[in-house]
Design goal:
alpha+beta
Length: 133
């Protein structure tokens, strides 16, 4: 039986600049947080681009964790988002859960919520699984 080492999340430069913290990481669920402060646009609201960037990161990490169990890696091929509510302060929680975990494609739902648990943004991300180089 071949066993593969499960990939562990490593923050990139943008993740660090955005203040992202990892709370949980598994094939079933990845949870992170990000402060609104430092990620606001010129009108004082959480920047939609920050929501997309962190959502794509968390969804991609979830896909790579799954891919690592198969000895593969993952690359994003599609992401879409809907912004539901704005935020001016506090902490955003980002949760990625699988919709589909295949051997070729994964799709995850990524939900961003505020301190009160209200949904700020919903993302759907699809990743292609590839053999590691």
């Amino acid at each position: 039986m071949v066993t593969h080492q499960i990939w562990q999340i490593q923050l990139g430069e943008l993740d660090e600049k955005m203040g992202v913290k990892i709370l949980e990481q598994s094939v079933e669920r990845v949870v992170a947080t990000m402060p609104v402060e430092g990620n606001r646009q010129s009108f004082g609201l959480l920047h939609g681009g920050a929501s997309l960037a962190v959502g794509e990161a968390v969804g991609s990490w979830a896909a790579v964790i799954h891919a690592s169990t198969l000895g593969k890696t993952a690359v994003g091929v599609d992401v879409s988002a809907t912004h539901h509510k704005s935020a001016r302060e506090g902490l955003v929680t980002i949760t990625a859960t699988p919709i589909h975990l295949g051997g070729t494609l994964t799709t995850h739902e990524v939900v961003l919520t505020n301190d009160e648990g209200a949904r700020l943004c919903s993302l759907r991300i699809t990743n292609l699984l590839l053999d590691r180089r």
